[in-house]
Amino acid sequence: xxxxxxxxxxxxxxxxxxxxxxxxxxxxxxxxxxxxxxxxxxxxxxxxxxxxxxxxxxxxxxxxxxxxxxxxxxxxxxxxxxxxxxxxxxxxxxxxxxxxxxxxxxxxxxxxxxxxxxxxxxxxxxxxxxxxxxxxxxxxxxxxxxxxxxxxxxxxxxxxxxxxxxxxxxxxxxxxxxxxxxxxxxxxxxxxxxxxxxxxxxxxxxxxxxxxxxxxxxxxxxxxxxxxxxxxxxxxxxxxxxxxxxxxxxxxxxxxxxxxxxxxxxxxxxxxxxxxxxxxxxxxxxxxxxxxxxxxxxxxxxxxxxxxxxxxxxxxxxxxxxxxxxxxxxxxxxxxxxxxxxxxxxxxxxxxxxxxxxxxxxxxxxxxxxxxxxxxxxxxxxxxxxxxxxxxxxxxxxxxxxxxxxxxxxxxxxxxxxxxxxxxxxxxxxxxxxxxxxxxxxxxxxxxxxxxxxxxxxxxxxxxxxxxxxxxxxxxxxxxxxxxxxxxxxxxxxxxxxxxxxxxxxxxxxxxxxxxxxxxxxxxxxxxxxxxxxxxxxxxxxxxxxxxxxxxxxxxxxxxxxxxxxxxxxxxxxxxxxxxxxxxxxxxxxxxxxxxxxxxxxxxxxxxxxxxxxxxxxxxxxxxxxxxxxxxxxxxxxxxxxxxxxxxxxxxxxxxxxxxxxxxxxxxxxxxxxxxxxxxxxxxxxxxxxxxxxxxxxxxxxx
Length: 703
Hints:
The protein is of the alpha+beta class and about 700 residues long. Helix content is about 45%, strand content about 20%. The relative contact order is 0.04.
């Protein structure tokens, strides 16, 4: 379509073209609009000023094969001239294919291709003749140093001589157009970059703050507002004291005044809108924003880092606590209870338990828990009495760490875990981590730590639990070795005392018994009345020496290593009962309802024996009883020993806290996994019942 500019009557020439170029510069460079918006008007001015038939713009591109091609984008034609915008050839062509390869070589070198059509090679003329072109000038357009395309001028009425001034004016037009294209391209690139920067500014997880040189907040991203609990824009115009802890404000001010920091950072506290504080890491640098110097501050929430450091410190303290407990002479139960409480504080778990088994057996030796419901520990002990079949125990046997998800549901599916079933529907935790305890390749226990459903421990946490379990294992091993050392020393001393007592005091008592009996026989031969004062004195002497001898034999039995294992629980109890009865004149009946000797492990038999002795001594000291009965019975899985008296009775609940003997009985029962029950009331006598699980087969022996 033809365009008639206001100055269409002006005489064509270089000056007129330069005037059109100035007009183009004003339209392209003074306006904020893209160059395409004003191109039609500019081409009309240039065409009229140059006095040509057509002015057009071609833009280069690469085809699918990477060849240099071009296509017409814009055109102006004078009145009566045919437009070529619909010419299919000009929509996209390869310079070489249409015979215009020479033109491309000139234009890429920034040369102008001008001339009359009849002077061109025959291969270049067909399309020119078809468009009625008598004379032509093609001026290259370069953008950012690359050949972008060209602006062309056609004369269809007559041939024309293109003077140097004409060519220079046309070059100025092409350069102006190239500058306009470059400006538009740069602006579009800047807008794209700004959009990208804005997207990053809005989407980054760190807080970003742009402040002016007076420290006033100009703009902050959503992350900064979120971490401080403010609405977007609510902090605009405020200074750092609005979100910085007062104690750290001087540090922040000095830090910002010393820009740039080249990557330096400070750790301070920020304040949320509700007044709560949290640790942050702050970095800052100088930037240009809206054409003016500003400060860009990057704020990273350091809560996770602070929590991680705190957790690390707690873990180090936990390991140190277990290590320190190893050098303190305290019961192993105390060390284990301290350990489970410590691991809960130092890990992400909500509860923990540790169990230690007897060597070469599945019988529970020690159990300590922390964070589990009331009654849960007793339930675990009962589970051990029923036998263990859990995945955690399998992990122990296979010497591996096991992370068990859905632990409560899996435990509910195991019948042998029935003693703890009632707790499981109400617990918060869902994940159980089982870590074996062992020393020198032998596993003897496990550390269990319980986690919430969505708080599964990471590898770092598992490594800490393994290290902690190793410390516990060392503590158990040290305590075991210490106990064995003390036991060996005690056994040696007891053996020495037993020998001494047998060789001296026991023989003397036996001789006294014989002499007393010989005196009674001599009195009978001499006719001295045995019921007289002398006879009664001799008889009393014989009874006393016999009682002392029985008690000495019971004492030697206790002192002699291996005596209990050799003679068995029933025989040992009978000897003690005979000694106490002889000494106190108190009838003690021992009833064996088993019919056979239960073969328990040595420690279990020792614990039962000591519990019975403690019960007998308590009765003698406190019950004022007239009769004591010791009965031993059994079922397929349990052995029960009951010590009953007809004494004055007492309140067991009130006596336990301050009575060392009863507390010792309770500890011994716990060590062997037995159930201890004391039933008594004022005036109703006392019954002490111990029910221990039988973990080995029963064998019949003669007693």
